[in-house]
Design goal:
The chain is an all-alpha fold. It has helices at residues 6-15, 19-26, 40-50, 54-62, 66-75, 83-92, 96-105, 113-120, 126-142, 148-152, 155-161, 167-180, 185-199, 204-217, 220-225.
C-alpha cells in the first residue's frame, strides 16, 4: 500500500461504515457520535498496511472520528509523540475503547509511559485517570525489563484509585491489579495481599475491585502458569 493521505484514509473508513455495528457498540457503552462502526480486525489490518506514519496519526486524531483515532494509535510513532501531545489526546478521549487502544498500541511504548501512568492516575478527568491505570496494566504485560519493585511502587496509586466509584476508573484499577499479579508468583502473592488491603477500604468500588482480582489471581488456571 502506498502512502495515504488522511482524507484518503477517512474515505476508506467511511466506505466501511456499518450502522448495525454502531448500534452494537452503543450497547457496550461506546458513544455513536463520530462513530462509523468499522470492525477492529479491519483497523488492525489497515494499520499494518500503513505502517508507522506519525504525521498521518496526528491528522487522523484531529478528525475526531472514533475509528480514525484508534487507527492513529496503531500508526503513531511512540518516539515522536510528545508528552504534551499525549496529554492533549487523552484529555480529548470520550470513549473507553479509544482510551484502551491508545494505551495498548502507543502510549505504553513511549519513553515516558511509567511517568504518565503515575501522573495520570492521580488526575480527576475520567479517561485521563483511566489511561493512567490502563498503561499500568499494559506495562505489566509488555515491559519485560521492569522489576517487581517498579510495580510495587504503583501500589499506593492503586489503593488511592480504588476509592473512585466511576465504572471506567474502577475497572481500570482492577485490570492493573490483575495484570501485575499475573507477572510472576511473587507479584501474585503481593497483589492478593494488596487486594485484601483494598477490600478493607470498605466502599463498593474497592470491594468489587478486590473480590474480582482475588478470584482470578488465586485461580488454579493463573497460578499453574506462573513461574518464579
Amino acid at each position: 500500500m502506498g502512502i495515504m493521505t488522511s482524507n484518503e484514509v477517512l474515505r476508506l473508513l467511511k466506505s466501511k461504515s456499518n450502522p448495525r455495528n454502531i448500534a452494537g457498540m452503543a450497547r457496550f457503552g461506546i458513544s455513536p457520535k463520530n462513530t462509523l462502526g468499522v470492525p477492529m480486525p479491519y483497523l488492525r489490518s489497515l494499520g499494518k498496511k500503513i505502517h508507522v506514519n506519525h504525521p498521518l496519526a496526528l491528522s487522523l486524531w484531529q478528525s475526531r472520528f472514533h475509528e480514525a483515532r484508534i487507527l492513529a494509535s496503531l500508526v503513531g510513532d511512540p518516539a515522536k509523540l510528545t508528552p504534551s501531545q499525549a496529554f492533549k489526546w487523552v484529555r480529548q478521549i470520550d470513549s473507553w475503547d479509544v482510551c484502551d487502544q491508545l494505551c495498548m498500541n502507543l502510549l505504553r511504548r513511549t519513553p515516558y509511559a511509567w511517568k504518565k501512568a503515575r501522573e495520570w492516575s492521580r488526575r480527576k478527568e475520567t479517561f485521563v485517570k483511566r489511561a493512567g491505570f490502563v498503561i499500568m496494566a499494559t506495562l505489566a504485560v509488555h515491559d519485560k525489563e521492569a522489576s517487581d519493585s517498579d510495580f510495587k511502587g504503583l501500589f499506593p496509586l492503586l489503593v488511592a484509585g480504588a476509592g473512585d466509584e466511576r465504572n471506567f476508573v474502577r475497572k481500570a484499577v482492577n485490570w492493573a491489579v490483575r495484570q501485575i499479579g499475573k507477572r510472576n508468583r511473587r507479584l501474585n502473592q503481593t497483589c492478593v495481599a494488596l487486594s485484601r488491603r483494598i477490600y478493607r477500604l470498605g466502599n463498593p468500588a474497592a470491594r468489587w475491585i478486590a473480590s474480582d482480582a482475588i478470584r482470578e489471581l488465586e485461580s488454579p488456571a493463573v497460578r499453574s502458569r506462573l513461574k518464579n
